[in-house]
Amino acid sequence: MAGNENKESPKMIQVQINDQKLTVPEGITVLEAAHEAGVKIPTLCHLDLHDLQLYNQTASCRVCMVELVDARNNRNKLVPSCVTKMTDGMAVRTDTLRSITARRMAVELLLSNHPNECFTCPKNLECELQALAEELNVREIRWEGERMAYPKDLSSDAIVKDSNKCIYCRRCETACNKVQTCGILSGIGRGFNAFVGPFANMPMVETSCTYCGQCVQVCPTAALTEVYHTDKVWEALNDPDKHVIVQTAPAIRVALGELLGMEAGTIVTGKMVTALKRMRFDAVFDTDFGADLTIMEEAAELIYRLKNNKTLPILTNCCPAWVKFIEHQFPELIHIPSTCKSPHIMFGTIAKTYYAEKNGIDPNNIVVVSIMPCIAKKAEAKRPELTKDEHNNVDIVITTRELGAMIKEAGIEFTRLPDSEFDSPLGESTGASVIFGTAGGVIEAAVRTAYEWMTGETLENVEFEQLRGKEAIRKATVKIGDQELKIGIASGLGNARVILEEIRDGKADYHAIEIMACPGGCVGGGGQPYHHGNEEVVKKRIDAIYEEDRRKPVRKSHENKEILELYKTYLGEPFGELAHKILHTHFEERERI
Prior knowledge:
Blueprint: E1 12-17, E2 20-25, H1 30-36, E3 47-49, E4 54-56, E5 65-68, E6 77-80, E7 91-93, H2 97-112, H3 128-135, E8 159-161, H4 171-179, E9 186-188, E10 195-197, H5 214-218, E11 224-226, H6 230-237, E12 243-248, H7 269-278, E13 283-286, H8 287-307, E14 314-315, H9 320-329, H10 343-359, E15 366-372, H11 376-380, H12 384-387, E16 396-399, H13 400-409, H14 431-434, H15 441-455, E17 473-480, E18 483-491, H16 493-504, E19 512-516, H17 535-551, H18 561-571, H19 577-583
Parallel strand pairs: 1-7, 12-13, 12-15, 14-19, 15-16, 18-19
Antiparallel strand pairs: 1-2, 3-4, 5-6, 5-7, 8-11, 9-10, 17-18
Helix pairs in contact: 8-10, 8-15
């Protein structure tokens, strides 16, 4: 509290919202003041997510118009509430005919240049423009006329861009340029035909896009969506010659319930497994197994670098979006990340080798389906260095949203399902692997294992509070025996840039760093259920991840019995010859476009 003693309190002013008198801090917007008064003003382009560091205040859509009351001159005027600051004595009305008509007209004008294909749209019932039309009682489009007619951009394996559905709110531009600092999206054209896209409307695949999906997460319409692969999964499940196995990432189990009538943060692990078995997957496994395997390799690699004076810091390599970020933006640091494959790719590799041999199945007949909170995993599975082996590591990647849609398609009443366990031998996991789903979890899991391997002592308290917190950039020191391990954590690519610039400029002395592309980590991934600006949803998912960790009987990756059996009978030593051959990879310097 001492740090706040000298901080000046904001000046308080007197204002009115719909004749309701309020005392509010000076500098607050009309929109914020209305919220304090319990008055809802509709918004579309506006986003103000403090915890996720996402601020979009372009006032471009004009959906939040209200009327400033000027009784002295009898000249009221319309203003956008999201950017208009309250001043002392200001009076505002949100319920006049003029303000209601202005808001409705703004939506009608947007709809006049918007495809009428709600029934088949990927964002049907999730579209904020659609919801606003209902909320504002829009019953007809009075200005039918010419519409934009741009071809869809289907060039990438991860993101579909449909400029015809762009309403020029520029939320994606803010997410891409200010939050993630990728610099891919900007306004193109003027007037009627304006939309947001890459420079010169280049195909997404030819840009430096990381496919983090944060643009998709904030897009209010279906101008940006993921590439859908649910049909491929149904095809595989109905092919009698294929042995179809599925793996589910840790962040899925704390978000899937939101799509199926449950509260945010509900842990649905057992029900999810039951649903997947009823969909007739031949085996249902846990990506957490791959996460535990990743820790075995990453912790061993960290210790190897420490003991042999090799390149430090080591950067955890579980997030394909941040890997692509460093390839494009910091190619001079390409030698720093861990060479480990990501958990779901490691899992796929083991499925096509160890699992296939153990069960006498031809790897060519195995289809590995990954269910991820991440859109970038779709592109990662197609990376040449991960598909050049005799067999693809992962065949199909779908998101949490796609899984929710498939469960509904299958007519499964999710909330009534009993709990089931993951299958063996790739289904056992530890609490360490669960916390991969939130920012700071990967490095904490690695430290749990590295501590015991480096000291030979039992780690009694496995929760490293200094590695946790809501700060987007965190720095901490963990004492392991005589070694003080300096650790950095960043979530969100803009924050990753800060740490990477420190390393590049020789201003950092970290030993290990975790970077997650999405704010909050995988729980806030681009493929997760849309949270529509509700920060509490992401917080609840994070709390649920740590709760799942606490519930686990085993909380250290190197104590996973199935992992130990895998090394004993197949891989040999962690970071050994065979493990390095099949579980590690390399990266490429890429042009920054």
